[in-house]
Amino acid sequence: MRLILLGPPGAGKGTQAQRLVEQHGIVQLSTGDMLRAAVKAGSAVGLRAKDIMARGELVPDDLVVSIVSDRIDQPDARNGFILDGFPRTVPQAVALDRMLKDKGLKLDAVVELRVDPGILQQRIATRIEQAKARGETLRSDDDPEVLKRRVEAYREQTAPLVDYYRWQGNLRSVDGMAAIPDVAKTIDRALRAGPAKPAPKKAVKTAGQTAKPAPMPAKVPKPRVVARKAKAPKAAKSRPKAAAKSRPKVAAARGKAAASGKRGRG
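Above: the chain sequence. Below: its structure as tokens.
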């Protein structure tokens, strides 16, 4: 069985991982432990990682994947493994999928421990008080401020993995705020249930994409055109003709007046 446990710091991944290791006879693989082991072994990958860490730089993804690949090939990991602290980002998850595919392997499940941040803070505070009362040495992450920074880093970098594995159908979400035995029973039921169906991806309309035009009907009716008869233009009044007819009468009247005037003078 090959598993990944997801959840913020303090969610109880370590407790559940140890139980699954004993139950299924698999190994828990921590990236920190693998890096230190590779450096100690003096392998080519380990020497490269040693130089990078000596400079205070982050080990690149391809190098981490190489170290994980070498560790998976060891005999004690043949029955399966639980990855702890890897992958932390989506690019690392993509690289892990590619590496497993090259080996003919695949993940059986990714278990997410869902927790409430506020209750998680209270849980850590209670754990610190109990550890102090017993005189135990506190862990490095048993500090509210340190925990707050680690939870914020988880939200920014690792939380997107939940959607990534949900789309693949590998995700099993479990209430991590329940009692430890209840969380264990829920994980066991989720693993027995088998893989979930991949979540459908939402269609995203890209910029510049145009909608398809609606289909045209088989017959397109022609627009009905009603022809109207043109009205004949009204005849304009012929004023010039009337004036022409009256001109002879005026001339005749003037001629009579002139004749009568001549007769009066003699």
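The first strand starts at residue 2 and ends at 6.
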